[in-house]
Amino acid sequence: MIEIFIEDLNQKFTFNEGITLKDILKNLNGKFKDVVGGKLNGEIIDIHTPINQSGNLKFLKKEDKESLEILRHSLAHIMAQALKEIYGDENVHLGIGPTTEHGFYYDVEIEGKRLTDEDLPQIEEKMKEIVKKGYQIERFELPREEAIKFFENKKEIYKIDIIKHNIPEGEPISLYKQGDFVDLCRGPHLPSTDKAGAFKLISVSGAYWRGKETNPMLQRIYGVAFWSEKELKDYLNMLEEAKKRDHRKIGKDLELFLIDEEIGGGLAIWLPKGAIIRKEIEDAWKKEHLKRGYQLVYTPHVGKEQLWQTSGHLSFYQENMYPRMQIEDEGYYVKPMNCPFHVEIYKSKQRSYKELPIRLAELGTVYRYERSGALHGLMRVRGFTQDDAHIICREDQVEDEIREVLNLALNTLKSYGFDEFEVYLSTKPEKYVGDDKMWEVAENSLRKAIESTGLDYKIDEGGGAFYGPKIDVKIKDAIGRLWQCSTIQFDFNLPERFDMYYIGEDNQKHRPYMIHRAIFGSIERFIGVLIEHYAGFLPVWLSPVQVKIIPIADKHLEYAETVKQKLLENDIRVELDDRNERMNKKIRDAELQKIPFMLVVGDKEVETGTVAVREKGKQGSQTLSIDEFVSKIKEIISNKHTL
């Protein structure tokens, strides 16, 4: 017998093992007709899943966010069934069909057919037919050998591979059936196909089976899904807006950065205008860190093999590192992280408790292997610069340090125009290093720091790394997308591996607390996010060109040059458009380059010593003296205002 506390009824019940949510709902005489699944001890289940353990059960309805997992998983199966019906059961071989953040996909092999986006409407229509038929979805189990034989008869080689390599001996093998379609799956699924919500197939791409280039290339069909047509429409509109904001296109149009296969995939080169953006961000970062007591350091791009053995990277991270280099009978690796170098800086001399906290900060470029298919502009690269820092402190300093770091992160992100955050606290996993007391101190300090900001936060129980708990901060951009930025991470592993210590007031050695933290995470990625957030119209202080001077005719060039020099003397980034083009074309070109201010000069301006100011986002122009304009733009730059 098992005991289940049903949260919706605030009551505990006793049931036989193996009871399903469907059985429980039946016993409640239709009180909860809109239930699509449940959440048992934090795990999402469907109405078909046998319950074999006691615990807390919450019914899931469409208004519950977790119910989308059930919807999207079911639609992946509905799409697979549609493919079988269109292209023939014997010709379609199924791989995996998981959910994604906003939908689902299925990896399939279709004999004699290479899908394109033009095929998606037909597949969608067939899916709608299956939904309309309202097939009951049923779950059943088969013994291991029988399941293998079942899929051998259907020539489903990828399903057999999953059973043999992903499902341990003795574990139940579950299958789901809807109409004549049967698939290997753990669930969760809807009660029937007609419960499915709104969906749309959006793209087709290639995907190697199990992500290995030596395996067959399958076809991956992506879909998005929500409960209502309105939610789907809103999301599709957001996707269209995201296309317009794509930092790769804007970066090319504005000549900000270059990624060239001749140089290497995932290796960004900053062009002059992009380098200005990066310089402004890095200068502001350095200034703020120096003000807060951080010490700036620079470390090499490579390190000896022994360093990475001591740190443990060669044991648990080598697949993400570039290959070993042999130099004078010694091995070297390009660094994937800055941490070991900062540890060695700390250890370069004996430390006293009076010196702590020590805050070491670096804009350090690291290199990590990413598969070519995962690369995406500045968002996913192989070489990137972390705004890294490591704080080494005593136990009595931990709480203040964490609070200061979190405030620094939030204030920095706000200065770039972000004001909506999602904060996550990840706690101790089952397997961990460090003693329980250190974990308790660390988790409490993280929790108190978040609560001091007044922000809501979510707890990811057991979601911390094995070497320490952490805070993650995500920012919401102008079209509602979330981006991971700041991380504040305790590390109980490296201090042990490198035998870090300080001499305490008692003249004894003590192990310090070590905190990793990054505000942006990656400079490259953060600039990509900024470009998309602002659709290229960056705040004036970040704009590579802040002012474009447009003389109406050649006779106004001499005065325009005078204006330009005045602006340069005041550290304003300015260009003079002296091309032999019409004024309206020059204005249009400056708008396409997303330049915040245009100064038009003609006869009137020359006579009066003024400029006609055209400001981004405003109609018409304003006449100001040169000094008045300089004063205005300097205030905007100084206060980091956006137009």
Computed CA radius of gyration, to the nearest angstrom: 30 Å
Strand order in the sheet with the most strands: 15-19-20-27-24-23-21-22
Helix content: 25-40%
Strand content: 25-35%
Residue stretches low in confidence (pLDDT < 50, at least 5 long) are none
Name the assembly state. Answer: single chain
Beta strands, count: 32
SSE-based structural type: alpha+beta
Overall pLDDT level? 93
Q: How far is the first residue's CA from the last residue's CA?
A: 66 Å
Shape: globular
For the sheet with most strands, the description reads: 8 strands, mixed
SS field, number of helical segments:
19
Could you explain the architecture of this structure?
- By secondary structure, this protein is of the alpha+beta class.
- Helices cover 34% and strands 26% of the residues.
- It is built from 19 helices and 32 strands.
- The strands form 8 sheets. It has an 8-stranded mixed sheet, sandwiched between helices.
- Strand 21, helix 13 and strand 22 (457-460) form a beta-alpha-beta unit.
- Helix 2 packs across helix 3, helix 7 packs across helix 15 and helix 12 crosses helix 13 (436-453).
- The longest helix has 21 residues, at 67-87.
- The model has no long low-confidence stretch (mean pLDDT 93).
